Each structure stands twice: as C-alpha cells, then as structure tokens.
Amino acid sequence: MAEVIIVKDQDEAGELYAKAVVDLISRKPDAVLGLATGSSPLKAYEHLAKLVKENNVDVSRVRGFALDEYIGLPLEHEQSYHSTIRRTVTDLIDLNPDLVHVPGDVLNGAPLSEGSKIAHAGADYDAAIAAAGGIDVQILGIGSDGHVGFNEPGSSLASGTRVKTLTEQTRVDNRRFFDGDINQVPTHCITQGIGTILRAKHLVLLAFGSNKADAVAATLEGGVSSLCPASALQMHPHATVIIDEAAASKLKLADYYRWVYTNKPSWQGI
Ligand code: F6R
Fold first, then answer.
1. Neighbours of 56 (CB within 10 A)
2. Which of 71, 102, 167, 255 has most Cβ atoms within 10 angstroms of its Cβ?
3. Residue 141 belongs to a domain with what CATH number?
4. Binning pLDDT at 50, 70 and 90, where does residue 143 land?
5. In this protein, which residues make up the domain named Glucosamine/galactosamine-6-phosphate isomerase (predicted)?
6. pTM of the full structure
7. Which residues sit with their C-beta closer than 6 Å to ligand 1?
8. Burial degree of 266 (CB within 10 A; 0-12, 13-18, 19+)
C-alpha cells in the first residue's frame, strides 16, 4: 500500500517533496519530473525552487512532463496548463523550457473539431515519456471526486494519454479561474491516463483540506475502482500520499500511518 504521511501543513509536505526531488537530481541530473497544476503542488514547487537555490543544484538537464491540458485554449492563455506550468514550475525552478512538455503543446490551441491533429496527440505523448526513460517522480493532486490528472470517475484504470470530457463538477470547480463563468471553461481536455500515471516510478500525491477527506479515504481504504480513479494508486509499488490532518480526517487507519511514519528509519527517504 501507499505510504501515508500526515503532516501539519503544506510547507511540511513541500519540504518532503523538495528533498526527494533534490536527492533524485543528485543521483540522476537528467531526472524526469511528472508535473501537476492546481493549488495542491504550489508550495511543493516553491520549496523545490528554494532547496535548488540553497544547494546550488544544477537543474539544466532536468526534464518535465505535465499531466494534462485543456483542449482549445491558446497556449498563451493565462489559464492554459502550458502557461501555468511555465509560471509555477519552469520559471520558478529555472528549468530549461525546451525540456518541459505539456500534452497540449503540439495542439497549440487547436479546437476539438480538428480531430486529425488531436487523434494521435495522446499516444505521441506517451511515446515521448517512454523515450525519455519514463517519469521518475510524478506529483499528483486529487479532485474531490477522486480524479487524478483529468481522469474523472469512470476512467479506465489502464488508460493512456487521451482526450476526455470534463465533468460538470470539474468545470464548476474550475470556473473560478475563468471569471466565474462556466461557459469559458473548456469542455474537453487531454490528460495522462491512469495507466500512464501508474508507469511513473514514484508517485507523490498531495491533498489538503476537509473537502478532500472523502476522496482520500476512498483512494487509500476503499476498493480499487474506476469510480475513484485515484484508488489505482493501491496498485503502485511506490506511492507516497502526503496529506494534512483535515484531509486525513476520514481515514480508519490514521493512527497506524502515524505510528509507521514515526518509526521509520531515518535513512529511508520517501
Ligand atoms: C492538475 C490535475 C488535477 C488536480 C486536481 C486537484 O494538473 O490534474 O487532477 O490535481 O483537480 O486540484 P487542486 O490541487 O487545485 O485541489
């Protein structure tokens, strides 16, 4: 099962992620990072940028692959994940932008109707990840409905990167980024599949706040089911779930996870 670490706040979670990534880069200077957008990983990226600067880590060869992108938004749109990853990760950590990829980059804002462009984009993205040797550490957030990436409930647990239709709930949740207007939120996206995500060597899922508590409980302690796509993490050999007390509040085994982490040998990383 996943390692579950209950932390006091997002800074503590961010420090754990940053240390794991800096250790990885010291072993593998051209490490491949799997990147997520959304609010959950923001502190983690800030801590990574800080640790990289403090330790003078050479990140010039580090590569990145984002999880997902809206279909039909121009790359330069403030809310495209291309722009968001550039702002919150690439520029912040000073990665080489040529080595950081977002699944919609090749589509360049093409609308859904341009099927010929879009049809192969997912398979091409998975091939590019494989050609890079696979993702070393994939950071993940989780939706209140258990989605990871844009794999909404019902997604195949073996899926590759592909076009998906966003649920009404996700479009309602994300309208805050589009002047509160759901009509501006795209209806479709391209997202790494659950199968793609499971091929990453290490998964680090971050969740904070009570609105994630049900999804976290279903992910860790429910059955593996496409109704909660994140529950596929139970099938991964190296998954780390870092959550705050509020997100952990519905876990039956919370005391056990705390005990395990407290007794973890200091030489073991996450
Ligand atoms: C982001 C992504 C989504 C988010 C999830 C949680 O690239 O794929 O799955 O991780 O919607 O969003 P936040 O972190 O904003 O609560």
1. 6
2. 102
3. 3.40.50.1360
4. very high
5. 12-236
6. 0.97
7. 36-40, 67-68, 141-143, 147-150
8. exposed
